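Pipeline run #58 for the internal structure catalog. This entry was flagged by the ingest filter as a single-chain record with no existing model, so it goes straight to prediction. Upstream metadata was stripped on purpose; only the residue string is passed forward. Reviewer on rotation: M.T. Logging verbosity set to normal.
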Amino acid sequence: MKFFVLLVLLIFPPVGFSKENNSFSKDLAQDLTSVGIAALTGTVIGLSTLAFTDRPLNHYNNVITGGAIGMLVGVGIVWYYRGKDSYFFFNPSIVSQESSIIVR
């Protein structure tokens, strides 16, 4: 099931990924890097909690939980920025109004 969802997302990407001046693969690599860094950060934070427990071997679920929370935060960050990009993609009048304000 997970493989099917990943395959569908790679074949039919969300519209927020498509920009005129950037390729899909560059955006995808940047997004995966952002999610990976957030997951790694969450894993390190979960790993650091083992130092404060009496029996660290019984609390390795903190590491997995930290990584999962970090991954969710990374996906949220990517989702926010791609949604912001697609907002201007679907509303070109907003972009032209903002650019005319800046030029004046």
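catalog note: Residues 23-103 form one domain.
catalog note: The mean pLDDT is 76.
status: ready for reviewer M.T.
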